[in-house]
Amino acid sequence: MKSGFAKLPFILLAAIFVIHAAFIVHYAVDVPIGDQWDTLNSDQLPSGLSLSWLFRLQNEHRLVPTKLLAWILLKTTAWNLNANLYVNFAIFGLFSSFFFVFQKRVASSVSASLFAWFLIFLVSSIADENHALADQSCHHFVLLFFFLSVYFLFSSKQLAFELFLGSLCALASTYAFANGIVLSAVVIACYAWFKWDRARVLLTASAKRVELIQAILVIGVVGGGILLWLLNYHRNLAVPPPTWPNKLGFWVVFFDLVALGFGYRVSSVLIGVVCTLAVVVPLWLLWKRTRPGNRDSFFALAAAILGVLGSLASVAFGRAGFGLGSGKTPRYAELAIVLIPPMVMAWGLALQQSKRDLRRAFVFLWLLCLGGYSNTNNWNFFHYRYYQQLKLKGLNCLSRYVHEGGPPVCSTLYPGSLAERLENAKRMKISFMETLARQPDLKPKN
Question: Which of 174, 213, 214, 298 has the fewest Cβ atoms within 10 Å of its own Cβ atom?
């Protein structure tokens, strides 16, 4: 009976993930929408694979992995947007599963079964926008590479190959999405702190020298990548000016973003503060209860939690100008929900000497998450039908352009003219153009 209960969260986690995937497949529509149309600009995907295109700014982002994935899908599926969605969700599934690997190295004393109960929240539909729009793979990539960089860089043995992989992953995170700069900057700051903490307890000069050289190399490579990212950077003038932390709006949006990761869609600074304390307090406890030179897990969790909080601060900095409600935008939920796994690990390590306190902490954390995720909208997989209807309405609009010579303007897909992009899509035989040629009228699925 006890063994069966231990398996229950894994079964639920797998079942919800499969159900979620089934809804994405069922409501997928092969047509670009929003910023995805920019991929069909003449100087982007139609111009072929080049370093210039891969590393070029798009709005305020450099989206190297997302662009590379689009090129691969162009060569294999004629850039079928449905295939893009399926690959995106598979990447998200691998990323979510990776937390078990991360937990095994960083917090092996925490029960995997208990940990799985908290990972269930990751496969909710709260970030449905990221799973319904093909170009939102950037969120999966930036977080996947960030956590991989933490995993490799903060290992106890500090093997050269792991440091090499960690540095590469940090660079990949930097060039996956704009907030990757903040994530990687926090990683190298924590890595410098980590190396200082290790070096100060070493007895020999040669051992200290190794720590220093490794720190210089990692910080130099990743820091250099960040500096290169900033070359030729220009602010997107189509968005409001940034909101600095001395403005109340910054903090309202920041705390709303943190709370969104815990499932709270209602705007409340108080809930946001409670959620923020829930992820920060265990770091302080863990620091106080560990000795210098024996804090590998602390630094890994500190880099993870502080990196994500820094990332959310960068979103508040750049998006609070759109209004206080911008802290509840669904696509940002994924950037915040990843606070839950390292939070659980940090509490598990900080209170591992007191089973009673640990049980109380986990009950509180579970209830805190449940309070937000009890909102049925966080599990409404039928909301993908909304995106399907938008796309189908636009696809039928495109059909009139292709078959009847109507205007190349379809407001549910893009606010402006699509003439140039449609001509490029036709010339490149992009998948959705082939669909339009075969099926002039498409209807929604129930």
Answer: 213
Q: Which amino acid is located at 357 in the chain?
A: D
Looking at the DSSP bridge assignments, the partners of residue 61 are 58
d(C-alpha 412, C-alpha 391), whole Å: 7
Q: Are 97 and 115 in contact (CB under 8 A)?
A: no
C-alpha 141/C-alpha 434 separation (Å) is 29
Q: Which residue, among 247, 228, 373, has the nearest Cα to 318 in the 3D structure?
A: 247
User: Which DSSP string do the residues of 34-84 spell out, in sequence order?
Assistant: GGGGGGGSTTSGGG-S-HHHHHS-BTTB--HHHHHHHHHHHHHHSS-HHHH
Residue 290 vs residues 152, 157, 202, 383: alpha-carbon distances, Å: 21, 18, 16, 46
Q: How far apart are CA 383 and CA 217, in angstroms?
A: 47
pLDDT tens for the 446 residues of the chain, in order? 456 678 999 999 999 999 999 999 999 999 999 999 999 999 999 999 999 999 999 888 999 999 999 999 999 999 999 999 999 999 999 999 999 999 999 999 999 999 999 999 999 999 999 999 999 999 999 999 999 999 999 999 999 999 999 999 999 999 999 999 999 999 999 999 999 999 998 879 999 999 999 999 999 999 999 999 998 888 887 788 999 999 999 999 999 999 999 999 999 999 999 999 999 999 999 999 999 888 999 999 999 999 999 999 999 999 999 988 888 889 999 999 999 999 999 999 999 999 999 999 999 999 999 999 999 999 999 999 999 999 999 998 998 888 888 788 999 999 999 999 999 999 999 999 988 877 655 566 66
The C-alpha angle with vertex 390 and arms to 387 and 392, in degrees rounded to 5, equals: 105
78 CB neighbour count, 10 Å cutoff:
17
Widest distance between CA atoms in the chain? 80
How far apart are the C-alpha atoms of 426 and 118, rounded to whole Å? Answer: 46
Q: Which two tokens stand for residue 96?
A: 């979510």
Residue 266 has phi, psi (to 5 degrees) of -80, 140
Closest CA to 32 of 279, 398, 308: 398
The model scores a pTM over 0.70: yes
